[in-house]
Request: fold
Amino acid sequence: MLKFKVSDDGNSIKLIEWTLNQEKNRLRDHFTKKSKDGDFNVLVERGIWDGMDHFMTKENHIPIGLWKEIHAFSKRTGVECSISGIHETLNLEYDKDSYTDFVNDLFKGISDEHGNEIYPRDYQFESAYRALQYVYCTQELATSAGKTLIFYIFNSYLKSIGIVNKANKALMIVPNISLVGQTEEKFRQYSNGLVDWNILMIGGSNKFNQEDFANADMIISTYQSLINFEEKSLDSQLVNSLKKKNKLEKLKAPKEKELQKAVNKVKTLKQRLEYAAIFKMFDSYSVVNVDETHKSRGSSISNIIDACRNWKYKLGLSGTAKISEEYSDFYKIQEKVGPLVMTLSAKYLIEHGYSPNVSIRMVYLTYNKDNVAAQEYIKMRKSPDDIKKMYKDNKEYGKEMLTIEKGIIFDSKERLDIISKMVKKFGKNTLILFSDVKNEYGKNISRKLLEWNKDTFYIDGGIESEQRDEFKGAMEKNEGVIIVASFGTFSTGIDLKNVHHIIFAETTKAEITIRQSIGRGMRKLANKNKVTIWDLVDMLDGYSMRHSEVRENIYIEQAFSIKKHEVNL
Reply:
């Protein structure tokens, strides 16, 4: 028997009683997960760090966002667990009738740009309701589920009962600049002037202004923008004080001690200014919304969530929240945003007609025997022990082999020809995704396609958001448009309704990247009931083949239709 109690500050759950030390040790093991940061980490190699993330402290505290994992532990092990005070922090008996009435009134007379009446789907209705019940939670909803509408219902309800206002703002964190404007636009569309949202966008060309911030009841921003405030985001008294003496003096601000402690952790003036801005501003956020919550496992966005010390509600939505349980990522997400309380699969959306069918075409590329480099590489992969002797360790060997493999792929004119022929045959809007920006493979693909299609657009991290939106707009309005984009810029959060074909032009085994990339094609239109994913697999007995097995398992898990093709280069 294990007994827990919610801490007085509401931030953690403490183990207060246990029958057997063995049970306590099993619990500690349950809350110890392998860290991705530990892979090939020099601290691990030197024995300084065990490469694990520990979610249970020596004082027996567990982050409150992991409270459901205690129940999961109990179910898995048969060890009885009880948590005193957890139900007092939730609103599980939330009045559903009043919520239903609110939602019905919220969407009266609201139509989309085509004049179609807007009303939440059954799962959207349920998703927002559960967020209100659980107060802080994570939900995994497949791409194209309409997450923005859920955020809109959730925040509008909290605004209607006074949780959100100018003094106690709602914060919406989105993964990229494009989504800042896109989210604001949808909120305007959904409200149609009936809900008085005063929204401030931060990021890109949207500059921060103290007065605008004071008047806003919702802030929409990327996490990058939130940690890069300019000096003018601070009041002049603080700026002048720091500039003159390069240290923080007493401020006429609430929770001065906490602010000073945070600022003193950093060394440079610029960092002090940024920290001070964050802590002063984030005290005003009562509701924290995190779009694409899987990114909250990263340290930057994690710090921002921690800075929202006065939160009353938190909601995180993502198409890929529950990622590999081998690592600690899923625990990190729940630790910051809250437990997973709802899942919705791509299969559900397809079966209920909310998303187009997804068809996977795995194209296996066999390299001609005249390709000497390819044949030599295949030979090397078949006798690795002899080759490994030439390198310091397996890590160095693996890095070199990957470099050689990429070089063969990037140098293949025949491979570029195949991609070009495929796209020409499609005749529909196509998104081509690549990984390696440095070696300009994406640019080479783009140049090849421009030989016969002037409506080919290239996007990587260096392309401004305004230009990206212009390229997206061209695809929305026309057919036969091609966008060649890096996984980093277009795999997550980008709303592409009118794309019919997606080509994975480079290999990857990252589950989040794969699932999110497929999601770029899962927006349904009247002229679109299917999206086809073309997965290129290079038959070099190397990384491309290994990674393809990982991707195929993901396709099978998602219940997508799979067909395989062989092509000789």
